Fold:
Amino acid sequence: MLDDRTPAASSPTAWPVAYPQGYAVVDVETTGLARDDRIISAAVYRLDARGEVEDHWYTTVNPERDPGPVWIHGLTSEMLEGAPLFADIAEEFATRLEGRVLVAHNAVFDWQMIAREYARAKREAPVRQRLCTIALAKELDLPLPNHKLETLAAHFGVLQRRAHHALDDARVLAEAFRPSLRAAAEGGVRLPLLECRPLTEWSDSPVPRQPGGHGGYRPTTWRPSRRRPACPYPNPGRFEDGKPLKQGMRVAFSGDTSVERDLLEDRAVQAGLHVATSISRLTSLLVTNDPDSGTSKVVKARQYGTPVVDEAAFGQLLRDVAPADG
Structure:
């Protein structure tokens, strides 16, 4: 593990009082992109309220399985063999995150990976809000041809030395975030902060390590897509407030949930509901804890007039789902 403290500089910019008091710029490298994939390295740059670097920290993590696409992140089984397990670094990681807004590029991915690792360790990550630098770039209307990290870095003249290395990616993002934050402060831009809900329930399926442990990647380490049986009930239409859910209703989910998403979807299926992966005019209900997030599902739900409830309300509704007609 690496820990280095950097003296913070001062900034004369007048600062919005509603802005957060500190940030944790995070990057994690993983064995893959699926729910059962694991973190293999993590880096955190702690920033003060104005985006100045306070210190940084980096560690590799033994995923206890095949490391996945080595040609991307460069971390082989041999390199990770003696690394600490996530449970061993969970407390130190937590001290880096506590009381700060988690900042990441495509923050929902980093947050979900972190939340899952803490759930496996039967702990909760001390993060309550996140900020995605892609969303911030859009709020600032930066003239970017795309929203890749290297493009954002080039826009602010930040040199990227080791792409897909957690420590360098976190450094690059911290250096690009500082001028973005200042531009937002100067323009009176409301930061696109979203709530983070730590997982309270988690189920994991074991993924065997590859025989020999030589770090070769096999597609079987990716979690296969779930093929649920077709819902046997016709769609009775939209959910109406004050009435129960009815078997056959099409339910979609968006954003973080405190119960792991697959478990929540499984409960919906067991109750006789149809779990939809997208929003259409036929969708009966959207479940989201972030109704103001601006995700494509939330936007479409508004366009179609699809009813929206949060996870807690949906949990109550699941207790008493009305049988299908006939």
User: Anything to note?
Assistant: The chain has a mean pLDDT of 90. DSSP finds ten helices and eleven strands in the chain.
